[in-house]
TrEMBL record:
Domain of life: Bacteria
Species per Swiss-Prot/TrEMBL record: Streptomyces purpurascens
Annotated PANTHER family: BLR2558 PROTEIN
Annotated region described as Disordered, given as residue ranges: 204-254
Residues making up the signal peptide according to the UniProt record: none
Transmembrane segments: none
Annotated ranges, domain DUF4142: 54-184
Protein name, UniProt field: DUF4142 domain-containing protein
Length: 254
């Protein structure tokens, strides 16, 4: 399916990565004082290494991505009949289930507040796919996923290269493996509109921050869990099952 740049759906598809590629402003809800600017500003010193604004934002971005990609995986599982689409759904559910468990553990250890809902923009992505059917649904869902996953690699690479926090570094490794796994199964469907993907990744539209930022969780609300379905817990993917929480060794003077 070729998605016209002039359609409303393009607006949704076109911004598929905005959340995962732009900084999220949660300093007040995280109890962090804005005493300096810049994503490299250290906001906490932990036993796993210093935590910067970009580190914190990365954890929130990974969590937020799952809050719309996981439901879309459920939708694909319910609607699609093609074996390749079933495989996509399985890998989305397992991959984001594992990533979400990592995000929740890391957020507890590092004192990061996670959203419980996707951003308005991301909710529109899901609504766009939900409004289609048959082959159009399959193609729309795959294209949305391919754009989102293809655009996150620079963010992962930057965090992996710069973070000094071992928990964030491990989450970046797992995220990279998961994204690559998802891209692989998406491409196996043969439904990707590569011209559309290339256009949207190289020239994504700029949207207001209130559209690309997930709402803060309500006070006292339990953290939403994205569970791995029981029948898929043994699914083998390239995404590892990390042991989050190991303290970073403290260097000793020689």
């Amino acid at each position: 399916m070729r998605i016209s740049r002039s359609t409303a759906g393009t607006a949704f598809v076109g911004g598929a990565m905005i959340l995962t590629l732009t900084a999220l402003a949660y300093p007040s809800m995280l109890g962090v004082q804005n005493t300096a600017s810049g994503q490299d500003r250290i906001i906490a010193n932990t036993q796993w290494g210093p935590l910067t604004e970009s580190d914190r934002d990365f954890v929130v971005k990974v969590r937020a991505a799952g809050l719309w990609e996981y439901p879309l995986g459920q939708m694909i599982m319910e609607r699609s009949t093609e074996p390749e689409m079933k495989e996509v759904a399985e890998h989305l559910l397992v991959g984001h289930g594992r990533l979400d468990a990592g995000c929740r553990k890391v957020s507890t250890d590092l004192g990061i507040t996670l959203p419980n809902e996707a951003s308005p923009q991301q909710q529109n992505f899901v609504a766009t796919a939900e409004g289609s059917s048959g082959k159009e649904f399959d193609s729309t869902a795959v294209t949305l996923m391919r754009i989102a996953h293809g655009g996150i690699f620079p963010t992962i690479a930057k965090i992996r290269a710069t973070t000094r926090n071992s928990l964030v570094r491990e989450l970046a490794d797992t995220t990279n493996d998961t994204v690559l796994d998802h891209i692989t199964v998406l491409e196996k469907t043969g439904l990707i509109n590569h011209e559309q993907v290339s256009f949207q990744i190289t020239a994504p539209p700029k949207l207001p921050q209130d559209q690309t930022t997930p709402p803060p969780p309500q006070g006292g609300a339990p953290v939403r869990v994205l569970p791995i379905p029981e029948n898929l817990k043994d699914l083998q993917t390239v995404a590892p099952n990390p042991s989050y929480g190991a303290p970073q060794p403290t260097p000793t003077a020689g």
